Amino acid sequence: MLIKNVHIQNDDQTKDVRIENGQFVNISPSIEATNGEKVIDATDKLMLPPFVDPHVHLDATQTAGDPEWNQSGTLFDGIRIWSERKQKLTVEDVKARAKKAIKIQVANGIQFIRSHVDVTDPNLTALKALIEVRDEIKDQVELQLVAFPQEGILSFPHGKELMTEAADMGADVIGGIPHFEFTHEYAVASLQFLMKLAEQKGKLVDVHCDEIDDPQSRSLETLATLALESGMGDKVTASHTTAMGSYNDAYAYKLFRLLKMSHINFIANPLVNTNLGGRFDTYPKRRGMTRVKELNADGINVAFGEDDLKDPWYPMGNGNMLDPVEMGIHVGHLMGYDDIMNSYKFVTVNAAKAMHVTDHYGIEVGKPADCIIMNNDNFYNALNERSEILYSIHNGNVLVETEPKKVHNHFKF
Ligand code: 17E
Ligand code: FE2
């Protein structure tokens, strides 16, 4: 297959891209089509590596309103409502809802997904279901599963045993929720436990860390120290870290040195952080997002996730990564022209780095031919105009093709 005249990652110059046997084999200013070769004319269109959603909860998706809507909008009411809905889970129920969400995501150019899966369930029903989904879709979408202890590790009956069982069943990543543990001591012990578990079982780590507007919530320093001292480094991700939005600047300054040394990744979820954040404030109301601009400026890897598609924590969500990008750059004051142009990185290359998949991700000769083509010439325009994903290509196969919409204007000016 030959794709003609694309702007790769906002490059002013266009290139031609040849795909053979599922890989990129040639990327050059001009390539002649061979006899019978399939040619896609993508003149002046933007080619990006595929969208990545590095943080979503596919076990809870599409349950918003069941058994009740989250009227307060707090994280804690979300956890309470989900805990009730969780009693009704079956493997079929989880698989049907997760697949529906993944189909929406893939139609929007997503090819890599990291889903947290609640393992504070003695039957591990959601994990069983999502392992089946992961295997069923593996040739088309890469799905990583996080063993996520929604109700705590030390604060939930048999929490440690459930985490270990989830790791042995095949979770790819070990999670945590230190800010929800009963005490600071439990928070620290949960991080020590989960980091050891990940090391012993050869897993990645992605912790819901300090997802609270409490400047005293400082689990991040413990997680980063454990990542540094264990050598786990960039295998570790801190998700949310919204408390960092409430830290004083002197503490944040000191913390950033450690964060840089530790090489851990960050994932903000701008849509959901702004929904759940600031809920205990009257005015001024905090924004609920971590220090994305400052982390990014310091060369620390930051990505954006969608977090939720219609569940007890967020009543909206349409599987389109342009939405978290749009919210994230607004809330994070990343509104310079270059900031906007480069903001695709939060949901592509940076997110792939957090998922630890960069050995097989990126538009480079020799890598699997995974890419999307957007109906515009650069990302500033594509984001502003919500341009279609004309093609989503995975391992050289076209996963999705979109016809651009046609608008017929009848006004007279
Ligand atoms: N659970 C949690 O602890 N935090 C979240 N943001 C979601 C689920 C969506
Ligand atoms: Fe989350």
TrEMBL record:
KW Ribonucleoprotein (keyword) present: no
GO molecular function: cytosine deaminase activity; isoguanine deaminase activity; metal ion binding
UniProt KW keywords: Hydrolase, Metal-binding
GO BP annotation list: cytosine catabolic process
Coiled-coil blocks: none
CDD domains membership: Bact_CD
Superkingdom of origin organism: Bacteria
Residues covered by the Amidohydrolase domain: 38-398
One Pfam family of this chain: Amidohydro_3
Listed name of the protein: Cytosine deaminase
Taxonomic source organism: Lentilactobacillus rapi
